[in-house]
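Tokens in:
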């Protein structure tokens, strides 16, 4: 009896999981920073490049099925360009084509890998950004890496994966914006 019940529950969960088509992840990083003027009278140009070989942000790995890839609504580089530009302006930089400073952000990795088992899942998020800052005298290059793991029962929920990815994306933006070495370099 218990064996039949277990088979019925597992079958129902599999049917439920298969019935849900993965949708797209909405990129909306959660950035929590106090706006303070760090820079004065500096003009900079900001650019963001996505160097990843594939555009998906979530990969669901299951033992008996092929991987499922979930893309983002919109471009990760556009979202990051907007976020970094907004944060830099709130810190006092003027954005434009000036030659005081060039800031380049390169996305090397940005993905959540979901290991889906029968009764639970584990989601590992890895985000890696390289920042290159260049002024008239020198260049600074730094790499920032963020790793996070979440676990849950049953099947990974797309809304939860989206929330977690956006939280981690927001955390790495804050990490870059609050980096003392980068701030000192920008100030000259």
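Residues out:
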């Amino acid at each position: 009896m218990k064996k039949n019940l277990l088979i019925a529950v597992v079958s129902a969960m599999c049917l439920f999981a298969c019935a849900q088509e993965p949708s797209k992840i909405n990129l909306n990083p959660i950035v929590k920073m106090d706006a303070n003027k760090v820079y004065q009278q500096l003009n900079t140009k900001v650019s963001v490049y996505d160097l990843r070989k594939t555009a998906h942000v979530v990969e669901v790995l299951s033992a008996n099925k092929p991987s499922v890839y979930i893309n983002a609504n919109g471009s990760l580089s556009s979202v990051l360009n907007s976020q970094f530009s907004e944060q830099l302006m709130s810190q006092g930089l003027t954005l434009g084509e000036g030659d005081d400073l060039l800031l380049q952000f390169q996305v090397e990795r940005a993905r959540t890998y979901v290991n889906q088992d029968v009764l639970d899942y584990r989601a590992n998020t890895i985000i890696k950004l390289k920042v290159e800052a260049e002024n008239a005298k020198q260049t600074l290059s730094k790499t920032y890496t963020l790793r996070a793991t979440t676990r849950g029962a049953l099947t990974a929920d797309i809304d939860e994966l989206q929330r977690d990815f956006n939280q981690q994306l927001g955390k790495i933006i804050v990490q870059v914006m609050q980096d003392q070495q980068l701030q000192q370099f920008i100030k000259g």
